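Appendix C reproduces, verbatim, an entry submitted by the partner laboratory led by Prof. M.T., so that reviewers can inspect both the input and the predicted structure.
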Amino acid sequence: MCTGYLEQLLVLSLETLFLFLQKGIDFSMTALFVLIVVNQIMQSDRYYPFLIGGSSALFWLIAVGPKYFLLPSLACTVILLMLIFLKEI
């Protein structure tokens, strides 16, 4: 009987600890993503892949909304980049 209360106390304390630790993860992962993208843009000699990806994501975000935009955006970006890079070869 006492162990049930201790287990519940342990679970609740761990749950609150993990919820507290996760609050800063969203911001830090977004900052890391922005840092990686900016670093890749600065090192790249071609900027149109970034422009194609960004404009495709923005277009599909407006067209279908935030819930369903990822798959069409990635498909559109991949198809356009394949067409451009196949012409260069």
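The longest helix spans residues 2-22. Additional entries are available on request from the coordinating office.
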